[in-house]
Design goal:
Rossmann fold, alpha/beta, single chain, binds iron/sulfur cluster, 333 residues, five-stranded mixed β-sheet, 20% strand
């Protein structure tokens, strides 16, 4: 059971000062039970409807503020993404949520395993508040620890599933990365964008696991999809309809570039890009989607479905250029 603590004090203060007639709340799937509890507390305390928007919200790229608008909720609390901003526009309020689990035991194990190494600590939103403490434990045990600087929405030491600036900026200076938390998803992204050994410090299983090989498997699968797509004659280019993932400019650029290489291209738009939705579309040999890159790397599809960095690699193949280290970039969009 996750030990999630939502900053309810801030939610209550916002409601007290803005006095909305109704509110909505959403958060990543893993913390929805805690979001439900908070919604119940709001209704009890203020006597107003509090809707839990239970669709996915994978990141601040996917706030679902349209859901709040359709509901007529005057304030929307997007919980748990903990970026370095407090608001999006007038009605979306970003609320921090932290996982209170301790890292003491697993950090000591890590110190044994990575003795004499120089490492960089990285994490996702929920464990940001633990970085200093774990840094202290590892440093006391003689490990050289560095924390990369934040950029854009990212805090120091924080990564998203497609954005790795605090990690990539240190790749020439460290031997390995240590990810705080349970997320193989984030850790494998770090391994791919840096091409360095990456370890997950899992405080729930009290285990230190290396994720490098798992990340390499993702890369082999992604590369295979690129080479399969190189044989395709007809392409579907998909624009994502989630508000922070809309990228028509890239979609139109890929369309133009593929047509220059003699391919036929049809444009599509989808909110959720799944194998089931794509099965309805006819006459397409391969797809490129310019929404969330992890849709392509972490899911199974019947046909090649390339993300933006994979599509850039595909264009290189079609132009008889070397494919390069297409994932070794700080931002996959
Ligand atoms: S990995 Fe996908 S869901 Fe996460 S921040 Fe990037 S685009 Fe958004």
């Amino acid at each position: 059971m996750l030990l999630i603590v939502i900053d309810e004090k801030r939610i209550f203060a916002e409601i007290e000062s803005k006095n909305p007639a109704s509110v909505s709340l959403n958060g990543p799937d893993g913390i929805l039970p805690q979001v439900q509890d908070t919604a119940m507390k709001i209704t009890k305390k203020f006597g107003i409807p509090a809707y839990v928007l239970a669709d996915t919200t994978w990141g601040t790229c996917d706030l679902n503020s349209n859901g709040a608008k359709v509901l007529g909720a005057e304030l929307q609390f997007n919980i748990g993404h903990t970026i370095n901003m407090d608001y999006f526009g007038d009605s979306v309020i970003l609320i921090d949520a932290f996982d209170d689990v301790g890292f003491d035991v697993v950090a000591k194990k890590c110190a044994e395993i990575l003795k004499d190494k120089k490492v960089s600590l990285v994490t996702d939103s929920q464990h940001l508040h633990q970085v200093d403490k774990v840094q202290g434990i590892l440093t006391t045990a003689g490990i050289d620890v560095m924390i990369g600087k934040g950029k854009g929405q990212l805090n120091d030491g924080q990564v998203f599933g497609c954005e790795f600036y605090p990690a990539t900026q240190l790749k020439d200076e460290v031997d390995a990365y240590v990810f705080l938390g349970q997320s193989n998803f984030h850790a494998s992204g770090i391994a791919l964008s840096t091409n360095k050994p990456t370890y997950v410090l899992d405080p729930y299983f009290n285990e230190v696991r290396e994720i490098t090989e798992f990340a390499q498997k993702l890369k082999r699968k992604a590369t295979l999809a690129i080479y399969k797509a190189a044989e395709a004659k007809s392409f579907g280019v998909i624009v994502g309809l989630k508000e922070g993932q809309l990228s028509k400019v890239f979609a139109l650029k890929f369309k133009k570039e593929l047509e220059k290489e003699g391919k036929s291209v049809q444009l599509f738009a989808l909110t959720d890009i799944t194998n089931e939705r794509l099965q309805n579309l006819k006459g397409i040999d391969a797809f490129i989607q310019v929404a969330c890159p992890r849709i392509s790397t972490d899911n199974q599809f019947d046909k090649p479905v390339l993300s933006t960095p994979q599509a850039n690699a595909l264009l290189k193949i079609l132009r008889k250029e070397s494919i390069g280290e297409y994932f070794e970039i700080p931002h996959w969009l």
